[in-house]
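Bumping my old thread because nobody answered last time. Still need a sequence for this structure:
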């Protein structure tokens, strides 16, 4: 008895420090990881009221002997704290043993377990074993944790609302399911199934079980490697953009990690494919020699430092941008809203998640089977599609020659303009369906790629101004610009100091929009003076995007059918014709199939 008293005090300290069990999610995490360590091929998580009322974890692992089961609730007794190296071997999830006594100290816990030879039930109340009895010998362990924090009401108060608790748990279980496609995970809250994977080992199937078929269809498999790292997994089409990074899962040597550098590498790879404050859905599996990583562990999170960051960045950006460059990324109007709703209900809207009544697991399985069948057909079809004729329209504008057409592989089929809607959207068609093109976004993309190319020309084409422009600046800005004047001369500006805080500009690069030079120059000055740490490639990118926006047709500029033809044919020649430099879509489509379905011509 004494021993247990001492232990409880120790525990109380630990709990006060909030280290092990501060949220239902942490309890679920500890127990699920125990189940995985026990070699389970199936882990069931059943919650009542997001786990606050009850958390039940049922596994089919190796189970425990009666002695082990009793000892499991004593601090340190079952501790199998391993070396940091062990953490990165898949067979071990690291340091256990501390958690079970801590959880038992703040709840009513029942442990039912069997190693296949004897069955045991242990009842614990507030950390004290109150009963040990026999149970059946189904191999595996079931732990039931009821009324978590009943004896530490302060902690209970810190629990966020039920929706948030459930969202955190779901997020965690989703990530475990992605990490262990070979293990079947079932998650239920108040009898409602939120996740049910099949343990078949197929990562895409798990993605489907989590996000649904509309998302699965827009995931792309990636693969690549260099001397130090090997990379695989799935990334989403940019149209699936999310406003949080929750849907990016990164696994290093099989373990989920949190690392903002990697997340930045991923989002940078989507540069101009989506707005800078959005995130894709991604599951990235990195394999690396443990020598190259430095593990920094806290009981509730896991971060890693990588040596050879640059080669890792190169690999990730290269693999992702190459994959994106092979895709046709025209969002289908009829699906876009459905996808947004679907994804939101899983990760963003806690309430929807909590009240989810419609989740039909068997339907998900059937849909996926259909999809697998279809995608086999699809691969064949894509190969055929690549043979379409590239139709070149003749437009004698000089900047068409500048846009890189070296690989001559247009990423979209030719579209034929039909008219203009709201003075903003070009309506076009071809045999695949109907297209709406945002005339400003499309023009902006064309100009952006043109400016980028021109600005990176080491021998800029320069034009002398008939009337030099003089620009007076506040003295602090003048000093910053003077210090950075080489950037401007490299771009082709000819700049002279001209009296107090004033520059005289005699020549400008040829790409500067005509007729509005002064404003354009002021914008460029502004970009230089407002950016604290200067990064040339970011600067060039920003200037290209800004100037492109200014130089492009606006909404409510009415353009003729001929203008539209020119616009569409130039857009097709872009490296990325699908989004403007700010990541907004340039084109959306109603496929022929969708149109027929909507008009009930095909059922
Ligand atoms: Zn714009
Ligand atoms: Zn834009």
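Sorry it took so long. Here it is:
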């Amino acid at each position: 008895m004494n021993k247990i008293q001492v232990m409880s005090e120790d525990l109380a300290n630990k709990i006060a420090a909030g280290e092990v069990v501060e949220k239902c999610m942490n309890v679920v995490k500890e127990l699920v990881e125990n189940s995985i360590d026990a070699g389970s091929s199936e882990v069931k998580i059943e919650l009542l009221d997001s786990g606050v009322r009850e958390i039940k974890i049922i596994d089919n692992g190796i189970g425990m002997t009666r002695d082990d089961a009793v000892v499991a609730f004593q601090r340190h007794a079952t501790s199998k704290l391993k070396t940091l190296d062990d953490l990165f071997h898949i067979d071990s999830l690291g340091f256990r043993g501390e958690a079970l006594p801590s959880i038992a100290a703040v709840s009513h816990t029942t442990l039912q377990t069997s190693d296949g030879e004897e069955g045991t039930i242990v009842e614990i109340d507030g950390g004290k074993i109150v009963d040990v009895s026999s149970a059946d010998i189904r191999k595996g362990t079931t732990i039931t944790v009821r009324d978590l924090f009943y004896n530490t009401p302060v902690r209970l108060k810190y629990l966020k609302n039920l929706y948030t608790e459930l969202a955190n748990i779901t997020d965690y279980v989703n990530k475990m399911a992605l990490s262990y496609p070979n293990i079947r995970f079932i998650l239920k809250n108040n009898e409602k199934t939120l996740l049910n994977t099949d343990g078949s080992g197929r990562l895409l199937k798990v993605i489907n079980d989590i996000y649904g078929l509309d998302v699965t269809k827009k995931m792309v498999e990636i693969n690549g490697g260099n001397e130090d790292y090997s990379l695989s997994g799935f990334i989403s089409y940019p149209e699936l953009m999310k406003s949080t990074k929750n849907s990016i899962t990164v696994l290093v040597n099989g373990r989920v990690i949190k690392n903002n550098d990697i997340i930045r590498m991923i989002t940078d790879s989507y540069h101009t494919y989506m707005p800078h404050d959005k995130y894709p859905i991604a599951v990235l599996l990195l394999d690396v020699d443990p020598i190259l990583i430095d593990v920094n562990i806290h009981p509730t999170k896991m971060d890693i430092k990588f040596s050879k960051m640059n080669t890792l960045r190169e690999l990730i950006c290269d693999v992702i941008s190459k994959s994106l460059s092979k895709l046709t990324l025209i969002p289908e109007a009829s699906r876009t809203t459905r996808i947004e709703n679907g994804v939101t209900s899983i990760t963003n809207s806690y309430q929807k998640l909590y009240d989810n009544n419609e989740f039909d697991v068997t339907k998900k399985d059937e849909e996926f089977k259909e999809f697998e069948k279809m995608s086999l057909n699809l691969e064949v079809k894509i190969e055929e599609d690549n043979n379409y004729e590239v139709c070149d329209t003749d437009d004698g504008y000089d900047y068409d020659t500048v846009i890189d057409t070296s690989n001559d592989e247009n990423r979209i089929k030719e579209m034929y303009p039909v008219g203009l809607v709201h003075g903003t959207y070009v309506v076009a068609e071809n045999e695949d369906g109907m297209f709406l093109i945002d005339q400003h976004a499309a023009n902006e993309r064309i100009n952006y790629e043109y400016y980028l190319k021109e600005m990176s020309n080491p021998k800029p084409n320069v034009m002398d101004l008939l009337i030099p422009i003089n620009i007076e600046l506040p003295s602090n800005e003048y000093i910053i610009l003077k210090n950075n004047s080489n950037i401007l001369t490299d771009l082709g500006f000819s700049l002279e100091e001209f009296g107090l805080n004033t520059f005289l500009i005699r020549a400008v690069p040829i790409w500067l929009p005509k007729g509005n030079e002064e404003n354009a120059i002021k914008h460029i000055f502004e970009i230089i003076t407002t950016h604290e740490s200067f990064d040339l490639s970011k600067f060039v990118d920003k200037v290209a995007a800004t100037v492109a926006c200014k130089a492009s047709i606006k909404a409510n500029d009415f353009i003729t059918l001929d203008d539209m033809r020119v616009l569409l044919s130039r857009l097709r020649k872009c490296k990325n014709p699908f989004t403007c430099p700010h990541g907004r879509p340039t084109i959306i489509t109603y496929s022929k199939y969708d149109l027929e379905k909507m008009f009930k011509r095909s059922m």
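The CA atoms of residues 461 and 510 lie 6 Å apart. Let me know if any region looks off to you.
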